[in-house]
Structure formats: structure tokens, C-alpha cells
Amino acid sequence: xxxxxxxxxxxxxxxxxxxxxxxxxxxxxxxxxxxxxxxxxxxxxxxxxxxxxxxxxxxxxxxxxxxxxxxxxxxxxxxxxxxxxxxxxxxxxxxxxxxxxxxxxxxxxxxxxxxxxxxxxxxxxxxxxxxxxxxxxxxxxxxxxxxxxxxxxxxxxxxxxxxxxxxxxxxxxxxxxxxxxxxxxxxxxxxxxxx
Length: 195
Known about the structure:
Number of domains: 1
């Protein structure tokens, strides 16, 4: 099958919508599940206490002081990421927030459960976070909100208001009778591009 940019952008938009749905579910659980709000987040923090990166332990202490507040905050962050990706609106800022959030989770769960882990075991343990980081970087670079999203409206308005000189291409061709090459714009009807 021949590669085309439009197929790639549609696939990227489908992945964006799928990841957005997953993050909406995560955020919904944190915001509207009273059991998670009261004790679930604290249980996760206690589970991560031995796994947190040494330089990031001060963040763990701040989170464990007020776990219910932080559960609501992180639920709101996940809901923002999910809704923005679903709608295709502010996709790049949402992906930047998602990258910071994923790095935060990576540092909280830095060490694997076993004490004697190898370099490859570390990557195996953190494969989910590393794959999400790569996916969010791809969405930023590929303008994931332009197809099947509200970001397409913003970019269409931007293109419409570009100056005319930036929209038209100019062709130069040599006429045997002239010393200077003639410049003909793309808007001209009577010039045909040479084969």
C-alpha cells in the first residue's frame, strides 16, 4: 500500500481519540469515585513509597500530606488531557501537560518491585510510560488535532488569512528571446507548467 500523508493523519487522529477516551475514563474514576477519593490515592502513594526516585521523594511527601486534594487535582489533569484529545482542541498544550504528567508518574514509580533489577528490566517495567511519552511527542509533531478535531477550524482560519504572496508559487522559465527569466504566478490562466 502506498504511503500518503492523509492516511497517516487519519490514523494519528484515531489514536488521539482512543487515548483521549482512556484518559477521560481515568479522570472520571479519580473525580467521581468516592472510594478512590477517600482512600484509593493514599493506598497508591503508600505502595509507591519504596519505588519513588530518591531526588523525587520530596514530591511524594507533599502528595502524602493531602492525598484527597491531589486525587482531585490529578483527576482534573487527566480529564483535561482526555477531553482535549477527544475534541482535538488545544492538542499540543494537552500533550505537553500529558508529557509532564507521565514523567511525574515515571519518577514516582522509578524502581521496580524487585531489588535486583537490570537495565533492561527497568525499561520493561516502565514500558507503558515510555510508550505514552513517545506517543504524545508524535501527536505534537504530527498536528494530531487537525483531522477529526476542532483544531482544524483554527488552522483553516490561519491559512485563509495568510498574505497572497505566501499562498502562490512562482515559476521561472527562460524565453529564448529574453535575457531575464520571466516570473509567472500560479494564478495566471494562460501559462502552463512545462513538462
